Amino acid sequence: MDRVSSSEEPTAKISSIFIYPIKSCRGISVSQAPISPTGFQWDRQWLVVNSKGRAYTQRVEPKLALVEVELPKDAFTEGWEPTKSSYLVVRAPGMDALKVCLGKQCAKADGVSVWEWSGSALDEGDEAAQWFSTYLGKPSRLVRFNAASETRAVDPKFAPGFKIMFSDEYPFLLISQGSLDALNELLKESVPINRFRPNILVDGCEPFSEDLWKDLRINGFKFQGVKLCSRCKVPTINQENGIAGSEPSVTLKEFRSDKVLRPNKKQQGKVYFGQNLVCKDSLTQGKGKAISVGDCVYVLSKASSPAEAAA
Q1: Is residue 116 in some structural domain?
Q2: Which residues lie across from 33 on neighbouring strands?
Q3: What pLDDT is stored for residue 8 in this prediction?
Q4: pLDDT at residue number 196
Q5: Start and end of every MOSC domain (predicted)?
Q6: Does residue 89 sit in the same domain as residue 187?
Q7: pLDDT score for 127
């Protein structure tokens, strides 16, 4: 059994929790977050798509970095249900606020796709479509994951049986403050954590120690580190102005590439920063499932080195 004795010291503590309701738009910092079978409640539940239903992300539409998203404060309490007066509020420079009702019935939109997945989604209507079309300067629509009829599985090679909504690959991404600090010591201009879009930021552990975490417990819930997070170009996009540069990718490549961390493994030209997680208890979801800022992180088992961690 992997129970943690009360005398065992925690490895780290949660310092921030972030949820990104609309994929590739700004995140929300919250004090607690309910856990659902697909990750945190509300995380990547919405997606902006083009006229063919294909996902827009910051990789091709960096202006999405400037889109702010707001949910009712009560939305992050356990068991909260939206009403017809509950709204997702979206704001961006030069735009009036968009209010999307959380309690309305939506029409089904077929042929929505994000990366390898395609299926139906729920279309949030013409007003939302016009708002994003005007902001991005091209035909766009806002859609919501259709959890009633669709599932999107996580790569079964790394996390069989788990699923997500519109996240890139896995339900949770964890990064330590120590890792960010170590990177910033090497950069001419430091970067904030929002470049890396984690769900869970922890503090109190050694830099990059999260690389090795395999089994951990947070507020009594079992989490599993399933894969080092390989990074795309999004961390090079300044989240305050939507402008891309070369850092931190250039510096990360020098000490966080597979060539450096995994020299005896097959080389794929990848750069790693953060650990993808699944919550084992999310598959038997019930009420009373939330984690909070300040919760201790107990590491129950580790890989022996980054080369031995899944990636």
Answers
A1: yes
A2: 291
A3: 81
A4: 98
A5: 140-300
A6: no
A7: 98
In sequence order, the β-bridge partners of residue 48 are 142
Give tens-digit pLDDT for 141-166.
999 999 999 999 999 999 999 999 99
Q: Quick check: pTM over 0.70?
A: yes
Domain boundary among 149, 183, 201: 149
Residues 85 and 213 in one domain: no
291/212 Cα distance (integer angstroms): 22
Instruction: Give the list of residues 6+ apart from residue 284 with CB closer than 8 angstroms, or none.
Output: none
**Residue pointed to by tokens 């509950």:** 86
Closest CA to 120 of 131, 129, 110, 130: 110
| ω into 207 cis (within 30 of 0) | no
Strand ranges inside 106-212, DSSP E? 107-114, 117-123, 141-145, 152-153, 163-164, 172-176, 200-203
Task: Give me the domain span that covers residue 192.
Answer: 153-308
Compute the residue count for the chain. 311
Residue 16 contacts residue 193 (beta carbons within 8 Å):
yes
Structure tokens given for 91: 């704001």
* Residue whose pair of structure tokens reads 């659902």 in the numeric block: 36
Phi, psi of 121 (to 5 degrees): -140, 180
For tokens 């420079």, what's the residue?
93
- Of residues 183, 215, 205, the one with CA closest to residue 196: 183
Count of the separate structural domains present in the chain: 2
SS3 175: strand
pLDDT at 2 over 60: no
Token digits of residue 50: 């083009």
pLDDT for position 13 = 98
Cα separation, 192 vs 271, whole angstroms: 18
Beta bridge partners, 228, equal: 275
